[in-house]
UniProtKB/TrEMBL annotation:
EC numbers: 1.1.5.3
Annotated keywords: 4Fe-4S, Iron, Iron-sulfur, Metal-binding, Oxidoreductase, Repeat
Pfam family, one: Fer4_8
Parts of the chain that traverse the membrane: none
NCBIfam families tied to this protein: PRK11168.1
Domain 4Fe-4S ferredoxin-type: 68-101
Protein name, UniProt field: Anaerobic glycerol-3-phosphate dehydrogenase subunit C
InterPro entries: 4Fe4S_Fe-S-bd (IPR017896), 4Fe4S_Fe_S_CS (IPR017900), Cys_rich_dom (IPR004017), Helical_ferredxn (IPR009051)
PROSITE patterns tied to this protein: 4FE4S_FER_1, 4FE4S_FER_2
């Protein structure tokens, strides 16, 4: 007979080894079966030998976190948050949610000031000094990332004197100094700030020109359409008004996209609180949320509920659409374009990675292929390489251009010298790599349906 101890199932008490929370990502980590498909889809891993790839950044780190002493690996800061791995995973592992959360934790752990203070309070000045000494490493890099991530603030300041800002931001010695002291690449030209913001234009025209409680949208213009390309916002307004929509433009802040990519979840949350409060009120008022930037619609529709627990956040996510997507769903856009024509236009279209994640990567080509006067070509499914702030970092610039090479080549092989995309930073990269003028699909819709050829 065996001497092995016997267990009474009724007496068995399960032990909670890991604390479970609403945002617990371990079940997602457990769904990973290590096929490595995500790694082969990662544009950064392809060019940067030191980047271990999404499988490590996601499920493997979350498994390692079961050991209490595991610290987030600093390679998490090299993930550009393109989110292509999300799309690639056959097991629906929430990779980008894991990356965003890990990056947030990594950056939070770098806030050495509080720890130093508590060491001081505990009567350990030597330990406090040591914490400060260690924490200073990478301080400039963190400051640079904070400035890049808070584009909303610098653009808001620049909007008071856009011509001065445009001169200073591209003044050679200033750019050289920014590259040397802060690590912002001097290889790129800063995008020009417009001489008026979208919101100034909106106020000057007296707001909505159409009143229609049955067809109402709230426009989320984001930072770039407001401060740099108000013509995209104006196109959005004119096209939607042409279809009889009443447009609301609620007060809003940055969607948070550059903050997620730089691990600044505290900043992103503060912005999300304002956005969710105002957009939820617009939904109450009968509106659907429409964004002209695919990264903004991605943030509102996916990243917000993945990262924050705020009243109304699920509602905002469920009611958010991209500008062309919403019209295709609710209007007979193809029919309207059948009757229209534009000046001869040969377009090289690039689908942003975040459009791909929302299933919107083919819509521009499908929509404009039969438009009289347009020849449009998809330049392939590669990443543009800039990924928001990633390509602005001195140490990432070469990788960014290497990733973008495939897109540049396809653009150059396509007919014409005009590009098209929905993402403002992809547009920067397309222009930077080819010198082409870049248009937004809403601008072409405006030309076809509102101003005419
Ligand atoms: S693709 Fe998904 S299942 Fe495969 S290794 Fe990556 S995370 Fe795991
Ligand atoms: S988000 Fe993009 S860069 Fe980051 S791990 Fe996934 S595929 Fe790679």
């Amino acid at each position: 007979m065996s001497d092995a101890p016997t267990h009474d199932a009724d007496e068995f008490e399960p032990v909670d080894v890991f604390e479970t929370t609403e945002m617990d990502l371990r079940p997602g980590a457990d769904d990973c079966y290590k096929c490595s498909t995500c790694d082969t889809s990662c544009p950064v891993a392809e060019v940067d030998d030191e980047f271990p790839g999404p499988k490590f950044q996601g499920p493997e780190q979350w498994r390692l976190k079961r050991k209490e002493d595991h610290e987030i690996d600093d390679s998490i800061t090299s993930c550009s948050n393109c989110m292509r791995c999300d799309d690639a995973c056959p097991s629906s592992v929430p990779l980008s949610q894991m990356h965003n959360t890990a990056r947030g934790e990594y950056v939070e752990n770098q806030r050495f000031g509080r720890e130093a203070l508590s060491a001081l309070v505990d009567g350990s000045p030597r330990e406090a000094l040591e914490i400060v000494r260690e924490g200073q490493d990478g301080l400039v890099e963190r400051l640079r990332n904070r400035i890049l991530a808070n584009y909303h603030t610098s653009a808001w300041l620049a909007s008071y004197a856009p011509s001065v800002a445009n001169f200073v931001m591209n003044f050679g010695p200033a750019r050289w100094a920014m590259a040397k002291t802060m690590g912002v690449t001097s290889e790129r030209e800063f995008p020009a700030f417009a001489d008026h913001t979208f919101r100034e234009w909106w106020t000057a025209r007296g707001g909505a020109q159409v009143s229609n409680p049955d067809k109402r949208i709230a426009y989320f213009h984001g930072c770039y359409s407001n401060f740099n390309t108000p013509e995209v916002g104006k196109a959005m307004v004119r096209v939607y008004e042409e279809f009889g929509y009443e447009i609301l433009v609620p007060p809003q802040k940055c969607s948070g996209t550059p903050m997620f990519a730089n691990g600044m979840l505290g900043d992103a949350r503060r912005h999300a609180e304002t956005n969710v409060k105002n957009l939820a009120a617009a939904i109450e008022n009968g509106a659907e949320i429409v964004a002209s930037c695919t990264s903004c619609s991605m943030a509102l529709g996916q990243e917000y509920p993945e990262l924050f627990d705020l009243d109304g956040i699920e509602d905002v996510a469920a009611h958010t659409y991209e500008g062309v997507e919403y019209l295709r769903l609710h209007e007979d856009l193809e029919d309207a374009l059948d009757e229209a024509s534009v000046e001869g236009s040969e377009l090289a279209y690039h689908a942003p990675c975040h459009a791909r994640n929302q299933g919107l990567d083919t819509q521009a080509v499908e929509l404009f292929s039969d438009l009289d006067g347009v020849a449009i070509e998809d330049v392939g499914d590669s990443c543009s390489g800039i990924s928001g702030t990633y390509g602005w970092k001195e140490e990432k610039y070469d990788y960014s251009m290497e990733i973008g090479e495939e897109m540049f080549e396809h653009m150059e092989h396509a007919d014409g010298e005009t590009g098209m995309t929905e993402c403002p930073t992809c547009a920067m990269q397309m222009e930077h790599g080819t010198g082409y003028e870049i248009r937004h699909p809403l601008e072409l819709l405006e030309e076809a349906l509102v101003t005419g050829s």
